[in-house]
Amino acid sequence: MPYELIRLGGRGDGAYLLPDDLQNIEACFSPGVCDSKLFEDDLTRKFNIDCHMCDFSTDLKKLSTPIIKSKQTFEKKWLDVNDNKDNIRLENWVGKYCGGSKKDLILQMDIEEAEYRNIVNCSSELLNRFRIIIIEIHQVHKYLNENIGSYNFESLINKLLNNHIVVHVHGNNCGICLIDKKTKMNIPEVMELTLLRKDRFITSNNKLFTPIIPHILDVKTNVPTKPILVLNKYWHQKFTLKIKLIRTLTILKITLICFLQSKIYKLIIYKSDKNLLIRNLRKIYHFLNKI
Fold this sequence. Notes:
Layout: E1 5-8, E2 16-19, E3 25-31, H1 38-47, E4 50-54, E5 72-75, E6 78-79, E7 87-88, H2 90-98, E8 104-109, H3 115-121, H4 124-127, E9 130-137, H5 140-145, H6 153-160, E10 164-171, E11 177-179, E12 186-188, E13 191-197, H7 233-260, H8 263-270, H9 274-289
Parallel strand pairs: 3-4, 3-8, 4-5, 6-7, 8-9
Antiparallel strand pairs: 1-2, 9-13, 10-13, 11-12
């Protein structure tokens, strides 16, 4: 991948790994902050990124550090798909603070199963504004095997992967692990995913970083009183190959777009069967666009 991973938020639970691709990001939206905002404090102090937080289960007096004036906000509300006095929709929340621009954002979400309905119901246009998404996925085993309401693990992951690529996975040891019979991967009950938008893989940076699981910066235990949870070797093999494949296909897609806009392409179709050529190029482009 094109950016090295860095760790923000300290060494305990609530700290995350994310790509060192934080220039020109307008703000971070953090639903489910609980009582600790060390991650958001690092974003604000080290990278001058505004941070907007919400969580109905806590309040300003309980936060571990005071709000940084003019750079951080807090709302005592749940993130949910409908607005009312106790809830706020992601679209309305983003619109309130960043509706006047189109700059990139970060989403850091830890909302105890509400991630399923909030992500699935989020518009693709809004989701694509988030350059980086850090999401804690809960009750993975339950949502893998059945629908809860109209949501399941597959619907959540498919929505996230429409325009983002997973660049890091961390198993939270607050829950158990089960071995998947098909892949032999050990599946944690609670997973922390970091995703980077696909267009960020096209970069002039010549140095590439190989994804590693577990990463040297990973916290060993989110819950110190429980056994260490390490994702097994099958995660590492599949994860590394997928990152390399997606990056290659993304480069091919951008190359094709540049070609379609070039003078060479116009010269070729002038001297050939235009309809056949255009049909074939469209097929290739649509295939790559699904990656």
